[in-house]
Specification:
Blueprint lengths: L9 H4 L9 H5 L2 E6 L4 E4 L1 H7 L3 H4 L4 H5 L5 H14 L3 E8 L5 E12 L5 E9 H20 L3 E5 L5 E4 L1 H7 L3 H4 L13 H14 L3 E8 L9 E11 L5 E10 L1 H26 L6 H12 L6 E7 H4 L12 E10 L5 H4 L6 E4 L4 H8 L3 E3 L7 H4 L3 H10 L3 E9 L2 E10 L8 H38 L6 E2 L2 E8 L8 E9 L5 E11 L1 H19 L4 H14 L5 E9 L4 E7 L5 E4 L2 E5 L17 E5 L5 E5 L11 H10 L8 H12 L8 E8 L1
Antiparallel strand pairs: 1-2, 1-5, 3-4, 4-5, 6-7, 6-10, 8-9, 9-10, 11-12, 11-16, 12-13, 14-15, 15-16, 17-18, 18-27, 19-20, 20-21, 21-22, 22-25, 23-24, 23-26, 26-27
Organism: Streptomyces coacervatus
InterPro entries: Bact_Sigma-Reg (IPR052016), GAF (IPR003018), GAF-like_dom_sf (IPR029016), PAS (IPR000014), PAS-like_dom_sf (IPR035965), PAS_4 (IPR013656), PAS_fold (IPR013767), PPM-type-like_dom_sf (IPR036457)
Keywords: Hydrolase
Length: about 700
Amino acid sequence: MTAESFQPDSDSDGFEPPPPTGLLDVLSVSAMVIDADGRIVFWTPQAEELFGYSAQEALGKYAARLFIQPEHLKAVVRLFTEVLETGRSWAGAFPIRHKDGSTRVMEFRNMRLQDDLGDVYALGIVADHNLLQRVETDLALCERLIEQSPIGLALLDPDLHYLLVNPALERIDGIPAEDHVGRGLRETLPLPDIDSIEGALRQVLTTGTPLLDQYHVGRPPADPEHEHAWSLSFYRLEDPGGRVLGAAASVVDVTERHRAAAEADRARRRLALIADASVRVGTTLEVEQTARELAEIAVPQLADVVAVDVLDSALACRRSRRPDDGPELFRALALKAAQPTVALRAADPPGGLAAYDGDRLVTLCVHTGRPVLVRHVGDRDLPRIARDAEAGSLLARAGVHSYLAVPLISHGEVLGALDLKRTTNPLPFDEDDVVLASELAGRAAVAIDNARWFQSVRNTALTLQRSLLPDHPPRHAGLELASRYQPAQATSEVGGDWYDVIPLSDDRTALVVGDVMGNGIDAAATMGRLRTATCAYADLDLAPEAVLQHLDKITCDLEHYIVTCLYAVYDPRTRLCHIANAGHMPPALVGPEHPAELLDLPSGAPLGVGGISFETTTARLDPGDLLVLYTDGLVETRHHPIDDRLDALLGFLDEPHRPLEETCDLLLYGLRHPDDHDDVALLIARAV
């Protein structure tokens, strides 16, 4: 019978023999057979490696004489006789003599053999004792390391099913060790990128190249409410013969480091947001613009839906009453969302007024002057957040799950509230968000406070300014008139520009345009005094240069004011217009028969210089001619030469037949710019 006859037929019985392991090869286990007389009758090649004797040297020899030291001979004969006579196996370590003369300790497993003739033999299985001890120590060390290691360790077969896990991995993923065995990798690792991890691990099995320190984040079954982080490393396992046994995985929990890094990153982003707010919030002295800037910077870094609501009493610069439990009237100033959402329909539209009862959270916020935080919004919270039941339903549909309101406080006064909601951001508001929102609200509140008081002062000055300007009829004797006054657009400040139309005797009309250098209520008040004086001197029927001479004396008595002024008197009977100039911009004249031009007048010195004489120049106004008087705010800018701007003014006067009101609008629209920092007075007269 050949050796092949002992090979199993895998095709016939379906048995697929597993590949041999390499452990016996590592241990170099050898075998020998000794007959009852003590002679060696079988000798393996491994025995030759272990003892140093070849088969020719060992077979037929007495084993005891070949490799037993004389002092151990008696003990060996006794053990040999006991094994053959009693049939009991013997195991132990025993020193033997190597062929090279050295003494080596061998690990023996001795047992009796009996053939079909009844003859008995002794079978010896032998391995190097030191090698066995080293392997045993290594196994024990590996076992203790695996059991006691703080790093999660797992062994996986080539199909990536668990064979073994240590206690640390149990603690990391919260799954008992026995529940791992036989399960796949994706069944225990709650990572969103498990497919790529499995692909990389199979590559490790194929190439043998380790995959080290791969950073992954997920939520383990043992703690699904919180995010954890792990560092994963994979290695291929091979036996001494190079056969792939599977893979080893190490899992290090780096959650604390991950959270510390996330918190540091969060702190950096918060500081960046505050720094950004310092630049972007409060760029103008407009309450509405400041509120919009606050809402825009809070989305989406802080909230998904943001509203800025200010108490109506605060906007009116009325000191609010002490906090109580009553309702409050809010004016919505800004509303911003990170993305389209029905939550916007639940909020008050900017510019509108809304009354909120005392039990509403935003009202509670302004009454107490403290933040109101609802980490997890429930059905009972929505009625206290929304203005009514319909708005509450919209907020529920939008997925509002966390709410925060912080007061807008400046100089100890509560101005309103910053209202924050989260819908798509899965994290609830926390105390750090309260601190950040309060910081942003505090900065914005100061800007809103400055803007509301500035607007109050501006409105007062504008009211004064407009009250001092004439409300003249559109027609005087021989003239058709139109006028405009426009405050500075960039600074929203009121200046001292004015115009006037004064009826004189004999159907004559005085036309006046002036500009008090400066801004604010003082400039407007000075303008009013000069306008009153101009009317008084005009009633005295003085010549234009004489009127300016008297106005110059009055201006000199005022504190450090410089005023430019153009005073003209038109006589419809003679069609002549007598004009005197005190440092003012030259008027423009245009008619059906001649193009637009600037009148060549002596510029004169501004009023308030003192001791300067003025001259009167005469111009003719035929029927249909337009005389355009204006202040420098219409044509002067910071970025263009004045000559270019005056040419632009004349270019807009190409249609003298255009209605005067349209001409006023055209000049203001065409020449004014949002960045202009000066106000404008404009007076146009057409001879009829």
